[in-house]
Specification:
By secondary structure, the protein is mostly helical. The chain has helices at about 1-40, 50-55, 60-65, 70-90, 95-115, 135-160, 165-180, 185-205, 205-230, 240-245. It contains ten helices and no strands. The longest helix is centred in the first third of the chain and has 40 residues, at about 1-40.
């Protein structure tokens, strides 16, 4: 009898223990699912669903822009800044720089190759560089595809089918023309490079605050666009659609 009582008491304790552990597991799963649901409802800028690293394409380019390796990213930034200072501040010309670098390289290799017999050292191993036909064809196909897509977009905009896209393109071209009047192409390229090198890493660091601010800004922009659409855009006659043509 004593043994049966002890077994029944142990069974009750084990049942209570398993019941509490299962309830705690279910509570943990519920909390995690609730946290995941809340996280999914958070507004992300431009409807982003993936991390910033994946949006930038992943791999080494994304690591470079997000400063995963500070030495490499800093080296690239220093190189780009040096090139900009060399051409803009010191007013060095591209053709002059290319010729001087080529003269220095060829002179060094020529002297090294001829002096190797006198100094008892091996001549420089100059690799043979060739552009393969497959690489050239792939690059040409990619350029052709992108150029044709750009022409198709410009044609669609010119036909008056999408007023919103037309206004965005006109605004972008006007901003580029304004920037072009203030600075040359190299300075504009350097500005774009600096933006790509600073904005993604800052956004990744403060993405929650920036997304919250972006959500408020998008709500206000949608309100103003709805008013503008109602008063102005809806009254503009649109071009013929594809269905009517067919």
């Amino acid at each position: 009898m004593a043994e049966h009582k002890e077994e029944s008491v142990m069974d009750k304790i084990s049942e209570k223990f398993h019941g509490s552990s299962s309830s705690s597991d279910s509570d943990g799963e519920g909390k995690s699912s609730a946290a995941a649901a809340v996280k999914a409802k958070i507004y992300r800028l431009f409807g982003r669903e993936k991390p910033v690293h994946s949006v930038l394409g992943g791999g080494k380019p994304a690591d470079l822009f997000l400063w995963r390796n500070k030495k490499i990213s800093g080296g690239v930034l220093a190189g780009a800044t040096s090139i900009w200072l060399l051409f803009e501040v010191l007013e060095y010309h591209l053709l002059t720089l290319f010729c001087h670098c080529l003269i220095l390289t060829l002179g060094t290799l020529f002297l090294w190759s001829n002096a190797s017999a006198f100094i008892n050292k091996a001549p420089p191993n100059i690799p043979e560089v060739k552009i393969t036909e497959d690489l050239a064809v792939n690059v040409a196909r990619s350029l052709r595809y992108e150029i044709n897509r750009g022409f198709a977009s410009l044609r669609a905009i010119g036909q008056g089918r999408d007023l919103k896209k037309f206004l965005i393109v006109i605004a972008g071209l006007w901003i580029l023309s304004a920037l072009g009047s203030c600075c040359n192409f190299l300075t504009l390229f350097y500005i774009v490079f600096m933006v790509l090198y600073t904005v993604p890493v800052l956004y990744e660091k403060y993405e929650d605050k920036i997304d919250a601010f972006g959500e408020k800004a998008m709500v206000e922009l949608k309100k103003y666009y709805a008013i503008f659409d109602e008063k102005c855009l809806s009254k503009i006659p649109k071009g013929p659609s594809k269905d009517k043509k067919h």
